[in-house]
Design a protein that fits this description.
The protein has about 325 residues and is mainly alpha-helical. The chain is about 65% helix and about 5% strand. The N terminus is likely disordered.
Length: about 325
């Protein structure tokens, strides 16, 4: 398991992935800007070749405007990501007096490794789950569900907290926040386009002034329709690719976080036992899909297809803990007796 951990190499890899993510989303954003520019140029009139030429020619103006808008989005989300995530998950702050055992467990883990204490939050749901988020020491947060805090014993709870703390140490939390911010741009545009888009009432393309206007109206409308269809395809592809990038970010991070939990607690059995209890009780039906990847377990996504999975299966994680960390699976222990 120590071999699998690779803390420093994983942190370096996550930093590189953050840069690659930034580059990928910038490229996708360029495609998105072009799609809107294409529709604008089509509404101005002309045949398809003219529309395409103008669209490419005006990208030098449209692109900086679009990038500036995305930059404003990113800045706002970067500064307010903690409140945005808490609002999406329903997490709220909890004091030391309200959860002394939870606080003490997390504080002891942080002291043992000289790590700054993250904020502690709780989600009012009977489901068993937890997540870590944040981009800097002042914003790092660990949230657990009320069900997790109530149903796990002290060893299991410490193992889960150590797992989430490892996500912070490994910069997984930072990477997921960056991915969620950028993917949010495409999710917003995709949702706006495919759920609320329609032709404005009374709209018609710009009409030519020649005497043959009536004969050419049909051609103008056809150009606009083709341009809109191209734009919709580009938006759909950008939306889909951004989603896949976000979902596919280092599925190995959960193995590494499990290993980090063992490294911090020296108790692989507790992590295995916690995973067994979480399995089948992790689903939070009202949770937005964009938040699934943050949690310790997300069964909803994996049920659709392993290709879209953000996490390895519980069975695979337990197998890794028994194979590399010398842990005992509670099911095997029960069956053995």
């Amino acid at each position: 398991m120590d071999k699998a951990y690779g803390l420093y190499s994983h942190i370096a890899a996550n930093r590189l992935k953050s840069l690659v993510l930034l580059a990928c989303f910038v490229l996708l954003l360029q495609a998105l800007i072009f799609s809107f520019n294409l529709v604008i140029q089509a509404l101005a009139g002309g045949d398809l070749n003219e529309v395409l030429e103008r669209s490419f020619a005006t990208m030098s103006t449209a692109s900086p405007v679009g990038l500036a808008a995305a930059g404003v989005w990113f800045l706002i989300a970067w500064l307010a990501h903690g409140r945005m995530i808490a609002s999406a998950t329903g997490a709220r702050g909890i004091s030391r007096d309200q959860a002394p055992g939870l606080y003490a467990a997390l504080e002891n883990l942080c002291i043992s490794r000289g790590i700054a204490m993250p904020k502690l939050q709780i989600i009012d749901t009977p489901a068993l789950n937890a997540y870590a988020s944040g981009i800097s020491p002042g914003s790092y947060t660990i949230a657990v569900t009320k069900g997790l805090a109530q149903q796990l014993n002290s060893r299991e709870l410490e193992a889960v907290l150590a797992h989430e703390l490892t996500h912070i140490r490994n910069k997984d939390a930072q990477l997921m926040v960056v991915a969620a911010i950028f993917a949010g741009i495409f999710a917003f545009v995709g949702d706006l386009t495919f759920r609320h888009w329609d032709f404005p009432y009374g709209w018609s393309p710009k009409r030519p002034s020649s005497s043959s206007r009536s004969d050419r109206d049909g051609g103008g409308i056809a150009v606009v329709i083709v341009a809109i269809m191209i734009a919709l395809v580009v938006i759909a592809i950008s939306w889909g690719v951004s989603l896949l990038i976000r979902l596919a970010i280092s599925r190995s991070r959960e193995f590494l976080a499990d290993a980090g939990s063992v490294e911090l607690t020296k108790d692989p059995d507790a992590m295995i036992s916690a995973l067994r209890k979480i399995s089948g009780q992790a689903a939070i039906p009202e949770m937005p899909s964009r938040m699934h990847a943050f949690f310790i377990e997300t069964p909803a996504i994996r049920q659709v297809s392993s290709f879209f999975a953000t996490h390895p299966s519980i069975e695979a994680r337990i197998e890794a803990l028994t194979t590399y960390a010398g842990g005992r699976d509670v099911l095997d222990h029960v069956q053995g007796n």
